[in-house]
Task: inverse folding
């Protein structure tokens, strides 16, 4: 892989849910091509997954970079992706309805860096990376399959809805087993 994927961590802590998503990203992107920036916590854990920096991407002068933002006007295509060396993704947990944090905390602050969407619907950070990697590898967005929202059964009576957009792999929504276990053990929602 030639490009570098940069996760700009934008949550106040590296929550357990973030760690699960970042581990899931490391199964998609080789360690040498993955950076975590703006890191104040969990440095040792993240060092196992990629390069770690305390510095924010806002202060790094990167050339040939692209921000992935659901509110960007243009959709990333395989041809378009070839011109970029760095792809910046928000280390932001999903929220519903989306608060446009990527636009406010990344796109609006990095005026000189172009932004692209992966469609208008919200993916989790790891699924955004999955879709991005597919596009980098030559598959356009309209050749991928998706499902809107999944419901995880917690026990006989309880379930939790995840109102995000999920890429389908062999007809099944992509979600890590660790996240399912984490949700099943979580007491409050
Ligand atoms: C869970 S999303 C957070 C989205 C946040 N609620 C917002 O409105 O900006 C985490 C990251 O995945 C990427 N992402 C998710 N869905 C995307 C999409 N449809 N297009 C481009 N990037 C996306 C963005 O980089 C985003 O910062």
Result:
């Amino acid at each position: 892989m030639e490009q570098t994927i940069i996760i700009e961590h934008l949550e106040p802590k590296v929550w357990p849910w973030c760690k699960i998503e970042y581990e899931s990203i490391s199964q998609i992107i080789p360690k040498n091509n993955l950076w975590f920036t703006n890191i104040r916590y969990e440095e040792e854990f993240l060092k196992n997954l990629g390069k770690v920096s305390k510095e924010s991407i806002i202060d790094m002068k990167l050339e040939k970079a692209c921000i992935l933002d659901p509110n960007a006007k243009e959709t990333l295509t395989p041809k378009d992706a070839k011109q970029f060396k760095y792809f910046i993704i928000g280390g932001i947990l999903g929220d519903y309805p989306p608060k446009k944090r990527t636009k406010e905390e990344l796109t609006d602050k990095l005026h000189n860096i172009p932004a692209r969407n992966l469609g208008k619907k919200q993916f989790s950070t790891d699924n955004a990376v999955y879709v991005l990697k597919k596009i980098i590898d030559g598959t356009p967005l309209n050749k991928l399959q998706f499902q809107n929202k999944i419901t995880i059964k917690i026990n006989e009576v309880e379930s939790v809805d995840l109102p995000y957009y999920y890429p389908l792999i062999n007809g099944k929504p992509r979600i890590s087993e660790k996240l399912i276990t984490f949700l099943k053990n979580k007491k409050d929602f």
Summary: The chain has one domain: 4-139. Residues 125-136 form the longest helix (12 residues). Helices lie at 16-26, 43-47, 78-81, 101-107, 125-136, 177-185. The first strand starts at residue 4 and ends at 9.
